[in-house]
Design goal:
By secondary structure, this protein is mainly α. Helices cover 86% and strands 0% of the residues. It has one domain. The protein is built from three helices and no strands. It is globular.
Length: 81
C-alpha cells in the first residue's frame, strides 16, 4: 500500500516539475499525477534502453520527470499536426 502512495507522490512531483519546466505551471493535481505516472513509465523505458540506472527517491523523480517532459513534447507535436 505504501508503495502505491510513493508511486503516486513521485508522479505528482514529476508531473508538476515537467509542467513548470515546459509551460510555466502544472496541470492540476490529477493532471500532474497522470503525466508523472506516464512519464515514469516512459522514463523507465528510456533510461533502461540507454543503460542508465537511477536509484532511490530522487532517481525515481528524475526518471519520471524526464519521461514526463518527453511525453509533453510528443503530445505537443501531435497537437500541432
Amino acid at each position: 500500500m505504501s508503495g502505491i502512495i510513493v508511486f503516486v507522490l513521485v508522479g505528482l512531483v514529476a508531473g508538476w516539475l515537467a509542467g513548470v519546466l515546459v509551460k510555466g505551471g502544472g496541470f492540476g493535481i490529477i493532471g500532474d499525477i497522470i503525466v508523472g505516472i506516464l512519464g515514469a513509465v516512459i522514463g523507465g523505458f528510456l533510461f533502461g534502453f540507454l543503460g542508465i540506472g537511477a536509484n532511490g527517491l530522487l532517481g525515481a523523480i528524475i526518471v519520471a520527470t524526464v519521461g514526463a517532459l518527453v511525453l509533453i513534447f510528443i503530445l505537443r507535436l501531435i497537437r500541432r499536426g
